């Protein structure tokens, strides 16, 4: 009986596990700077084209509105990765992108070419693919430097604007990094990003959408168009629409909306049929609707919505972008070689038919 | 007892993510992967049926015992050594893929060799235990982890980010004839049954394999999820650019009210568990096959004390794995794994056919 050998073996194994502890690259949380917002702009300088702005959270014991503290670092560099490397010389703690959920691209850069920026983001292992992307107007740095007075902890205000936790705005178009990078590569599905503007340095306005081709901005949608675009894209959050019935203004709140499209081929003319069903409640009406049949009101509202939607779709078509994925649907339905070339020929001449079924479920609490 | 067969099937099917199956399938997505996915359940169910049917005539016997009854010693020995190497290799690939993943996503500053050493030491020690212990270990890990995997897959499939049009575009390429690599990758999902070549020792006489119809269906579902979910998330063109496809897909999801927002970490932890148990099970089998070469060795499934030979063999495996990692870089690893998948497919067909014929011969009166 020699029980000593296994014991020595076990001890040796346990000691062996201590070996990696020394080589461990772990850094404590108080030795890290958490980046909560990243902005990338064009600097205007030919030699160092990119201007990188990072927003660093400073931990604070208090969590109450207006107490969030930041540090900003800005640098011009030839490439983003090099700029970041250089920024490490400016700060005392390790930069950590693991909590960065907001990436803002300056408008001037977005109008030029964003592919290299995106390449950097997708390549970095610590950047979350669920991070939100947006375009900053007039530039990313100025948007990041806004300090909303209601903000509770660093970087939270902008994040709440994009997620569904806080405000649910029907004008905002939240796009994640993974969704955006998918749209940059996919044939027949073009990217779109929300545009963030500062509101006199105390808040953000996010009510425009930039439609892009695979490289840069092609078309900017106004707030009204942006809302309708969100509805067409089924990125629906509770929204409203305005209509006129017998010279009286009516506003209905849309509670439910389903949008579907189909591509039909009729006598060599391609027709993109968009079917929208929505359930609404009247929110505002300048005349009483008591004892009135709501059918003609519905019909009137449907007509005006159809006209506006067709106009918007034609405008998007004219810019030759396809953020709703008509092309992808065409590829899916028409397999085979040359299908993509066909679509590129078809799309500029295709006509749209929007079919709206609007149901007024009630008139609110009064008639 | 049928559940043990189910576990053996399931944990190999889930391991496909670590052994580059999604990567190989996605590389060939426009030439033949879809057809390979549809062909492989047929292939898989034929193999499963033949193998279980044959083994039910050899109750309580593993492959080494069956072979040594019918074939000359040199052949059995050679075949067992080859078999052990195949098993050793698959688990080394898994362990290495995992060490690299941990290095990339958890701790980029650590030395990847140290991570690898810890993984192989843990698995190596676990593999020295008895066959029954390893089987029970598989059961525990499966029961603990599969609910989480189901949760992640449920979240992915119901996510609005999943674009059905992209999936449809790729599915349209169904009429392309599959390449050998994509077929080998797709059939890997169904390869769990081959673990019976050792674990059959545990099954009692008069044991009947039931619910065999379930395995092709289950395998097909896993295969479809493995292949199409990343395409739905990253688009028909975008999937090709990612190296760690499934990790990245898990990272595209968010658990808003989970303890950790990034699904990726949950995903990695679950697959770390599965990889460890896969390595353990594969090395245990490789070890038993090697021991089966020696004439004096009696198969034991539940020995109270692990013999010294276990430690020696697994020590060699562990060293060899670390050595493999030192010598091979990631690109070579992918090429070698692809080759391994193809060789595995043919080895399997040969093994199953041999055992099947042997089982029929046994019925005939001498």
TrEMBL record, chain A:
It holds the Pfam family Spore_GerAC_N. Coiled coil: none annotated. Residues 27-197 form the Spore germination protein N-terminal domain. Residues 208-364 form the Spore germination GerAC-like C-terminal domain. GO terms for biological process: spore germination. It comes from the Bacteria. One of its GO terms (cellular component) is membrane. Keywords: Germination, Lipoprotein, Membrane, Palmitate, Signal. InterPro entries: GerAC_N, Spore_GerAC-like, Spore_GerAC-like_C, Spore_GerAC_C_sf. It is found in: Membrane. It is a lipid-anchor. Belongs to the GerABKC lipoprotein family. This is Uncharacterized protein. It comes from Paenibacillus oryzae.
From TrEMBL, chain B:
The chain crosses the membrane at residues 6-25, 32-51, 80-103, 110-128, 134-154, 174-193, 213-233, 265-287, 308-327, 339-358. Keywords: Membrane, Transmembrane, Transmembrane helix. One of its GO terms (cellular component) is membrane. It holds the Pfam family Spore_permease. Signal peptide: none annotated. InterPro entries: Spore_GerAB (IPR004761). One of its GO terms (biological process) is spore germination. It comes from the Bacteria. This is Uncharacterized protein. It comes from Paenibacillus oryzae. The lineage of its organism: Bacteria, Bacillati, Bacillota, Bacilli, Bacillales.
